[in-house]
């Protein structure tokens, strides 16, 4: 199957989550991604639990479809090797602290002199300028700094972080968009560029109407839990067997909802006639609606609401999600064979390219540390003697038992599709 980014060679110098997530998306789309890990311990997330057969699931979540090599970053020969690989690549991706690439002799200004068409892509915590430029990029710190946490939680709980590393993940997504834009620009001009984003910038880009509320009318939003900041009723409501999400976003849906609940009187109640009034009295409205919703279960109400054009749905656990027939029908979970773990299930790329039902994004398992070192270095033009010398001096590391396994693990299956 032809993939849209086939032919692009990406040198991945990233670690933890934001950078590896961005390069995994590039790999899913067909780019050849070379993950360079510092030997002897590799990417820092390899030490983060929980573990599946002694392999970090954190690492597994963001490194599929890549070839992995081990290099000693602290050895001048190792940095010289990385520079050689960078100058023979199309794209270099990094998420070190601001200034680290320059200290290693790998800064964009230096590399672009020798290879003007090179694209470099960088993620930092807070941007490459300003008083916080030197702060390390940790997701929760950025969630708090960006105001994101101030919007999440309830007045009782206070600020809460989002349940995943949303700053890391969205900065990775924004970086992919920037990289693809730079690839298009290079096709038109023949020149590369340096693409940058940060956790701070990415999170602020997601403030949406909450950010605009402040910029336009000076309102400082407060956390409001599971209710919508500007629409009522819209949020989480209790039923006979647990919580249900309801989103009757229009006046027509509101009237229809009251009819289904046999509570038409609410449509003429002065507290609830308009959305503005419902917002002012949303706590009283929640109590009224839940008195009716407690007559049926979540799934009974979900079916009834959907049939009547009112968006609704249960609040699933991950166990519910991964056994859900809709998830299975869409092939959102795919499987690949890992050389240590065996069958590895992963959430695939959430894109369907070309409308094919056979789209498979999980093609190769996340590499074992140093799994492809010899294969990759040979592909960059190093001789067997060069590679042997690098291994002998411990500048490069090749995992034992993988020398003849280039391309292992290519077979993949999509769950829920035949």
Shape: elongated
Q: If you average the pLDDT, what whole number results?
A: 93
Termini separation (Å)?
17 Å
Assembly state (oligomeric): single chain
DSSP strand tally: 17
CATH topology of the largest domain: Rossmann fold
Uncertain segments of ≥5 residues (pLDDT<50)?
A: 405-411
Number of discrete helical segments: 17
* Structure classification: alpha/beta
**Share of residues in helices:** 25-40%
Please explain how this structure is put together.
The structure is a single chain. This protein is α/β, with parallel strands linked by helices. It is built from 17 helices and 17 strands. A hairpin with a 2-residue loop joins strand 11 and strand 12. The longest helix is centred in the middle third of the chain and has 24 residues, at 166-189. It starts with 8 loop residues before the first strand and ends with a strand. The model is unreliable at 405-411 (pLDDT under 50).
